Amino acid sequence: xxxxxxxxxxxxxxxxxxxxxxxxxxxxxxxxxxxxxxxxxxxxxxxxxxxxxxxxxxxxxxxxxxxxxxxxxxxxxx
Length: 78
Hints:
The chain has 78 residues and is mainly α. It has one domain (10-70). It has helices spanning 9-39, 47-70. The radius of gyration is 18 Å and the shape is elongated.
């Protein structure tokens, strides 16, 4: 059985800087999505539901994928 590698403080720090960039770009995207939905014909009353579709899907799907990935450990698949 292979042992999982431990990460140093700086490795974790660098990984989180990358995640910060991802979240920042996601926030910029979210500011532009309502005008796009409106341009595509969504009514003003539908915008909150459309904005919640992604996070609710992530709330359901991400724990399932996380549970599956926690059981997977190999040099090839990570």
